[in-house]
Design brief:
13 strands; single chain; 11 helices; 333 residues; globular; Phosphoribosyl-aminoimidazole Synthetase, Chain A, domain 2; 60s Ribosomal Protein L30, Chain: A; 6-stranded mixed beta sheet
């Protein structure tokens, strides 16, 4: 499919190709490098930035909850968005086998109330518990006139011995891809999801699972806290956090591509959106995690061990020589 097509996500107001272009424009101007000790290590564009710190690497990431906050506002329920904020950060650290140790949050709003902040704090605390890390600080900003709603973001610090970092440089064609299920839509693609629900249903409408669409879309992002223990026991060639961009996230890891031949079964919310709005399958796998929130790439001889350690994981495909992402023979562009 052409990069110039106007896909469903672009029609909803988010242009993934434009976002990639503006990020590249920003990065092209970030040329300064610190002099002295603790230099930057690795390349930009991976899931985490690295700083050399003696025998260790420190890893830094930042991310937010995005337009999922609009659904929390509509439903008056902010209890789980803190988990999303933590998850979107720590899962990016896990990709490189970095152990999360500290987190700071940033909350901006035109105005605040104590009940909302207590609910956000409840989720942040639960996310920190699941990831086994400290929340060491944060910042609130009253930005009346600049922002129209509540925005929640954070930054996370991870650590790992230098020899244990997973960068993806060991990935080779023929390696197997092991998919680990998501808990649902996580915290990406919510602009399109909201648009479809508002057009073809409502947030209070029930799905066949008896959950409302609002409840389903607020299901918190899974925190893949099993990954550090897995990396201690098994040689992992690469890992991927399936966020905005869907399967295209794999192309950040190596010069090779991926072919998904046995995809995980998508949650009901994904199949419903695809059918209700007639969204092409390529756009679905380019926008959403489609039931696979995280993936490990391993030598075929290690696949059974990984699936044994993470019982709900399964082999979904393999690494291919061409730098493309394919799902059931269809290229995702």
């Amino acid at each position: 499919m052409s990069h110039n097509r106007e896909d469903a996500y672009q029609k909803a107001g988010v242009d993934i190709d434009l976002e990639s272009a503006v990020v590249s424009a920003l990065i092209s101007r970030l040329t300064f490098r610190r002099e002295g000790s603790f230099p930057m290590a690795g390349k930009t564009g991976h899931f985490a930035g690295l700083i050399s710190f003696g025998d260790y690497y420190l890893g830094l990431v930042t991310d937010g909850v995005g337009t999922k906050m609009l659904i929390a506002d509509l439903l008056g329920d902010w209890r789980t968005v803190g988990i999303d904020c933590v998850a979107m950060n720590v899962n990016d650290l896990y990709v490189m086998n970095l152990e999360p140790i500290a987190f700071v949050d940033y909350i901006a709003s035109p105005s605040f109330n104590t009940e909302t902040m207590m609910q956000i704090g409840e989720g942040l605390n639960e996310g920190a518990r699941l990831a086994n890390m400290n929340i060491v600080g944060g910042e609130t900003a009253t930005l009346k006139g600049l922002v129209n709603g509540l925005d929640l973001a954070g930054a996370c610090l991870g650590v790992q011995k230098q020899g244990n970092i997973v960068t993806g440089e060991d990935i080779r064609p023929g390696d197997l891809i092991i998919g680990i299920p998501s808990s649902g839509i996580h915290s990406n693609g919510l602009t399109l999801a909201r648009t479809i629900v508002e057009q073809y249903a409502s947030f209070s409408s029930q799905m066949t699972s008896k959950k409302t669409f609002g409840e389903e879309l607020l299901t918190p992002t899974r925190i893949y806290h099993e990954i550090p223990a897995l990396c201690n026991e098994c040689r992992i060639h690469g890992m991927c956090h399936i966020t905005g961009g869907g399967l295209l996230n794999f192309l950040r890891l190596s010069p090779y591509g991926i072919e998904i031949t046995s995809p995980l079964v998508p949650h009901e919310i994904f199949s419903w959106m695809q059918n209700a709005a007639s969204v092409p399958v390529q756009d679905m796998y380019r926008t959403f995690n489609m039931g696979m929130g995280f993936a490990c790439i391993v030598d075929p001889s290690d696949a059974a061990y990984v699936c044994n350690m993470i019982p709900d994981a399964q082999v979904v495909g393999k690494v291919i020589p061409d730098a493309t992402a394919r799902i059931l023979g269809e290229e995702i562009t």
